[in-house]
Specification:
It is built from 1 helix and 10 strands. By secondary structure, the protein is mainly β.
C-alpha cells in the first residue's frame, strides 16, 4: 500500500497459487468491502493453466480469499453495483460474477472484447459509465 506522499506504507503478502509465484494485475478497492485483485501468475508460467485466480483481500488483515479460478489472464478487475467484472486478457473476454459467490472456470457471463481484433489477446481493462448502463473493455 502506498500513501499519499508516494511512499510505501505497508506490503500485503499474498500466498502463491499452484505455480508457486504471484503476479497481481488489476485492482479495485471498494471502501466498505475489500480489494479485488487478479492473480495471473499461473497463466504466465503455463499458458494452459486453469489455476489463475481472482482474489478478495482484506487490506487491514491481509487475508486473501479466492473468488474465482480459471480466469485465464485476470488483468482488469472492477466491482460495480452487485457485480464483479473481470477482464480476461488471455482469452479476450469479460466475466461477470457475484463477488460474494465467486465462480470457477466456465461460469459467469462472458462477452468477447476482442471480436474482430488482430491481436491475440484482449480485454485488458474494464470501466463502467456513471449511470451504470455501459461496460467498456479495452481490447
Amino acid at each position: 500500500m502506498v500513501g499519499r506522499d508516494g511512499r510505501q506504507v505497508r506490503r500485503l503478502a499474498v500466498k502463491a497459487g499452484a505455480s508457486g509465484v504471484v503476479a497481481l494485475f488489476g485492482v479495485d478497492y471498494v471502501g466498505d468491502e475489500d480489494l479485488y485483485v487478479g492473480d495471473g501468475a499461473d497463466s504466465l508460467t503455463n499458458p494452459n493453466s486453469r489455476n489463475t485466480r481472482v482474489l478478495r483481500i482484506n487490506p487491514d488483515t491481509g487475508e486473501a480469499r479466492v473468488r474465482a479460478t480459471g480466469v485465464g489472464g485476470p488483468i482488469g478487475v472492477l466491482r460495480h453495483g452487485r457485480w464483479l467484472y473481470v477482464a480476461d486478457g488471455v482469452n479476450g473476454r469479460v466475466l461477470r460474477m457475484r463477488p460474494d459467490r465467486g465462480c470457477s472456470s466456465g461460469h459467469g457471463a462472458e462477452s468477447s472484447a476482442a471480436a474482430g481484433s488482430r491481436v491475440p489477446h484482449g480485454a485488458n481493462g474494464v470501466a463502467v459509465d456513471p449511470a451504470g448502463r455501459n461496460l467498456y473493455a479495452a481490447p
